[in-house]
């Protein structure tokens, strides 16, 4: 019950004139496409690296802005307190030094 072995024989067509040029051109185009794909991949990787670096720099800049804004608030608060103290000191000087001196001058002028 052995079946006879069948053998498959392939016939390769004879190359026609110009087929070699077509094959070379096709291979050259595939090589160019491969080169373009590699360049594109490198460009994407470079862009991603740059985007990541810029993103980190942006986060650092945003953090620095928050720190500076907090510092501005703190300094504005101190400036307001200093202005209040200057007003208080000015009033104290006017009440305790200038007003009595003016009162004495007025009395002296009345007496003269």
> Residue-averaged pLDDT, rounded?
90
Uncertain stretches of 5 or more adjacent residues: none
Quaternary structure type: single chain
Q: Give a count of the beta strands, DSSP E runs of length 2 or more.
A: 0
Q: Quickly count the helices.
A: 1
Backbone structural class: mainly alpha
Percent strand equals: under 5%
Distance between the termini: 156 Å
* Major sheet characteristics: none
- Secondary-structure element order, as H and E? H
Overall radius of gyration? 46 Å
- How much helix, percentage-wise, in residues? over 70%
Sum up the structure in keywords.
mainly alpha; rod-shaped; 1 helix; 112 residues
Can you tell me about this structure?
With 112 residues, the chain is an all-alpha fold. It is built from one helix and no strands. The longest helix has 93 residues, at 19-111. The model has no long low-confidence stretch (mean pLDDT 90).
Quick synopsis:
The chain is mostly helical and 112 residues long. The chain has 1 helix and no strands. It has one helix at residues 19-111.
Please describe the topology of this protein.
Elements: H1 19-111
């Amino acid at each position: 019950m052995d079946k006879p072995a069948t053998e498959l024989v392939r016939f390769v067509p004879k190359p026609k004139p110009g087929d070699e040029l077509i094959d070379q051109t096709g291979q050259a185009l595939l090589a160019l496409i491969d080169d373009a794909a590699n360049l594109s991949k490198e460009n994407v990787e470079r862009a991603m690296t740059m985007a990541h670096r810029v993103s980190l720099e942006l986060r650092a800049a945003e953090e620095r802005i928050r720190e500076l804004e907090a510092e501005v608030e703190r300094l504005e608060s101190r400036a307001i307190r200093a202005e209040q103290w200057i007003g208080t000191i000015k009033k104290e000087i006017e009440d305790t030094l200038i007003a009595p001196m003016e009162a004495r001058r007025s009395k002296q002028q009345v007496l003269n």
